[in-house]
Design brief:
Layout: H1 3-27, H2 32-42, H3 55-70, E1 74-75, E2 77-78, E3 84-85, E4 87-104, E5 107-110, E6 116-119, E7 123-133, E8 155-159, E9 164-166, E10 169-170, H4 187-196, E11 201-205, H5 210-223, E12 243-247, H6 249-255, H7 260-273, E13 282-305, E14 310-320, H8 336-358, E15 365-372, H9 375-378, H10 380-387, E16 396-402, E17 418-422, H11 429-443, E18 446-448, H12 467-470, E19 476-480, H13 499-518
Parallel strand pairs: 7-8, 8-11, 11-12, 14-15, 14-16, 16-19, 17-18
Antiparallel strand pairs: 1-13, 2-3, 4-5, 4-13, 6-12, 7-13, 9-10, 13-15, 17-19
Helix pairs in contact: 1-8, 2-8, 2-13, 6-7, 8-13, 11-13
Protein name: M28 family peptidase
Domain Peptidase M28: 300-511
GO molecular function, one term: metalloexopeptidase activity
Length: 530
C-alpha cells in the first residue's frame, strides 16, 4: 500500500477519533443535576405556569437569557433602540368576551355559569328590552309560533327543539323524524327567523336542568374559546348578532315573572293541542355582551453562537418556553415536562457548546438556541420566526426541536431508555443517518419511530415547533417521550421528571448537533415525505 496514502488514512482516522473524543468530553457537562437546577426555577409556582405573554413567561425568558449571556452567546434580535437583544418580540391578537351578563329583577346572571351563548353578538353597553315568548320559535305552513305575535325590537324566549304530538312522534313530521328545528344547530334557523321578524335578541330555553345543565355550560365554555383564540394578525370579526342566550327554565321563568312549572305547563299545552301557545307570557330583561380586543405581547428568546469557517450556515436547536398557565379553578400548571424539559435542555446544550468553544473546539457552523413562545396557543412563536427569521432560512441546515423529554408514556413504563424521533427522515436521509449513528456510538437508546408514521392518528409531526421549519424545507428532528397522565394538568411537576433519562436524550441531541455543525458537507435535502 502507498505509504503516503496509509499516512493520510491514519491521520484521517486520528482526526475523526479526536473529534469523537472532543464531543464526548464536552457532553460530560450535560448532567441530571444541572437540568434539575434550572427546572426547579422554570417550573416553579412563582412563574405561574408560563402562560404566553404572562409575567411568568417573561420571567422565564429573562432567566434563560441570563444564562445564555453567561455562556457567551450573542443576542441578535433587533431592539427598539437599535441595539441587539436576546428577545425577538412579537404580538398576538385576539377578540374575547368581556363583560357578559343578564339582569332580571335585581339579580345578575353570570355568563358561562348560569347561561351560555351560541354564536357571536355585541352589546357593548347594558340595554333593557321587553321580552315575549314565542313558543318553539317555528314558522311552518301547518304550525306558526309567530302568527299574530309582534316581536319587533323585543327579545324572544323560545323553547329548544320542536313540539311532539305523542307516541314518540313529532308534530311537524307526523313521524319519529325530527325536522331542522331540532338538533345541535337548530338554534341557527330559529335565531334567523326571529331576527327576520324584527326581534332584537333571542333566548332559548334548554330542556337540561341541574348537573346536566352545569355540565353542558362547562362544555360550551370550553368550546367558546375558539372565539377567543389568538392570531398573529389583528382580528376582524363579523358581528351579525346571530346568537342565542341559552338559559334554564328557572331563569326563563324569572324573566317572565312566573314559575318554571307554569312555563313548562305552557310548553306541554302546545304538544297537547298541536297548536302554538294560547297564552304568550311577557317580561323585561337587561343584558350586556361585550366583545373586546386584546394584544398579547410576547417574545422568542434567540441566543447565537457564531461558527468558524462555515459560520454562514446555521443549526437551530429549539424548544418552547411557554405553558398553559393557571386553570380556571386557580391551580398552577407548571409544565415541568411540557416544555420545561426542553427549555432547560437548551441551556445545557448551550453550555456544552460554549465550553467547547472556550477550549478552541467551537462549532464550524453557527448555532441558534431558540426558545419560542406561543406554542400552546398554536405554534405561533416558531411561525413568527419562520416568517421573520433572524438568520436566513436558506442558510439554516436543520432544526432539532425538543418538546417533552422528561417522563415516560404508558407504552414504555417498563423501558425508560427510549425516545420518540419524529421527522428525521422526512426531508433529509443524511440527517436520519447522522441521528442513528450518534445514538449507536454514544447513547444506545431505543429510537421509537411510532409517531413518525404518517398514518399515526396523533399527527405529532404537525404539533410542535419543528413543523414551522419543516414546511419551509428545513430538515428537522422532533425529540419527544410521549404524553402522560399529567399532560396539560397541574401534576406536571419537577419531582416527576426523570433527570437521568433526560440527560441521555440531551446528550443524543448534542452528539447529533455536533456532527451537523462540524461535518464538511451540509446535509442534503433529498426527500419530501408526509
Amino acid at each position: 500500500m502507498n505509504k503516503k496514502l496509509m499516512a493520510g488514512m491514519f491521520l484521517s482516522m486520528a482526526t475523526l477519533a479526536n473529534a469523537q473524543d472532543d464531543a464526548s468530553e464536552f457532553a460530560k457537562s450535560i448532567t441530571p443535576e444541572d437540568l434539575k437546577k434550572h427546572l426547579v426555577i422554570i417550573a416553579s409556582d412563582s412563574l405561574e405556569g408560563r402562560d404566553t405573554g404572562s409575567p411568568g413567561q417573561k420571567k422565564a425568558a429573562e432567566y434563560v437569557s441570563k444564562f445564555y449571556n453567561e455562556y457567551g452567546t450573542t443576542p441578535i434580535a433587533p431592539a427598539s433602540d437599535g441595539s441587539k437583544s436576546y428577545l425577538q418580540k412579537y404580538n398576538l391578537y385576539k377578540r374575547a368576551w368581556g363583560d357578559v351578563y343578564v339582569k332580571v329583577n335585581g339579580r345578575k346572571y353570570e355568563f358561562n355559569k348560569d347561561f351560555y351563548l351560541n354564536g357571536l353578538l355585541s352589546i357593548p353597553e347594558e340595554v333593557n328590552t321587553p321580552v315575549v315568548t314565542a313558543g318553539y320559535g317555528i314558522e311552518e305552513s301547518a304550525y306558526n309560533d309567530y302568527a299574530n305575535l309582534d316581536v319587533k325590537d323585543k327579545a324572544v324566549i323560545i323553547f329548544d327543539g320542536e313540539p311532539e304530538s305523542g307516541n314518540g312522534k313529532f308534530l311537524l313530521s307526523g313521524t319519529g323524524e325530527k325536522s331542522k328545528w331540532s338538533g345541535p344547530v337548530s338554534w341557527q334557523p330559529k335565531v334567523k327567523l326571529a331576527i327576520a321578524k324584527g326581534a332584537k335578541y333571542v333566548f332559548i330555553v334548554t330542556d337540561k336542568t341541574g348537573e346536566d345543565l352545569d355540565k353542558e355550560i362547562r362544555q360550551r365554555a370550553v368550546m367558546s374559546r375558539r372565539f377567543s383564540a389568538p392570531t398573529l394578525k389583528p382580528v376582524e370579526e363579523s358581528l351579525t348578532n346571530m346568537a342565542a342566550f341559552v338559559i334554564s327554565p328557572d331563569m326563563a321563568a324569572s324573566i317572565l315573572k312566573t314559575s318554571a312549572a307554569a312555563l313548562l305547563k305552557n310548553k306541554a299545552a302546545i304538544s297537547k293541542s298541536g297548536k302554538p301557545a294560547a297564552k304568550n307570557l311577557a317580561g323585561n330583561v337587561s343584558m350586556k355582551a361585550e366583545r373586546v380586543s386584546e394584544t398579547i405581547e410576547t417574545e422568542n428568546v434567540a441566543a447565537f453562537m457564531e461558527g468558524s469557517d462555515k459560520k454562514d450556515e446555521v443549526l437551530v436547536i429549539s424548544a418552547h418556553l411557554d405553558h398553559i398557565g393557571i386553570s380556571p379553578n386557580g391551580e398552577i400548571n407548571n409544565g415541568a415536562d411540557d416544555d420545561g424539559s426542553g427549555t432547560v435542555s437548551l441551556l445545557e446544550l448551550a453550555e456544552a457548546f460554549s465550553k467547547a468553544k472556550a477550549a478552541g473546539k467551537g462549532p464550524r457552523r453557527s448555532i441558534l438556541f431558540l426558545n419560542v413562545t406561543g406554542e400552546e396557543k398554536g405554534l405561533f412563536g416558531s411561525e413568527y420566526y419562520s416568517e421573520n427569521p433572524l438568520l436566513p432560512l436558506k442558510n439554516t441546515i436543520a432544526d432539532l426541536n425538543i418538546d417533552m423529554i422528561g417522563r415516560v408514556d404508558e407504552a414504555h413504563k417498563n423501558d425508560p431508555k427510549y425516545v420518540y424521533l419524529i421527522g428525521s427522515d422526512k426531508l433529509s436521509s443524511t440527517l436520519h443517518a447522522i441521528s442513528e449513528e450518534a445514538n449507536k456510538k454514544y447513547v444506545n437508546y431505543k429510537l421509537d419511530y411510532t409517531f413518525n408514521d404518517p398514518k399515526d392518528p396523533n399527527r405529532f409531526y404537525y404539533r410542535s415547533d419543528h413543523y414551522n421549519f419543516a414546511k419551509m424545507g428545513v430538515p428537522v428532528i422532533f425529540y419527544f417521550t410521549g404524553v402522560h397522565e399529567d399532560y396539560h394538568k397541574p401534576g406536571d411537576d419537577v419531582e416527576k421528571i426523570m433527570f437521568d433519562k433526560q440527560a441521555e436524550i440531551v446528550k443524543l441531541v448534542f452528539y447529533t448537533a455536533w456532527e451537523l455543525a462540524n461535518r464538511d458537507e451540509r446535509i442534503v435535502v433529498d426527500s419530501n415525505k408526509e
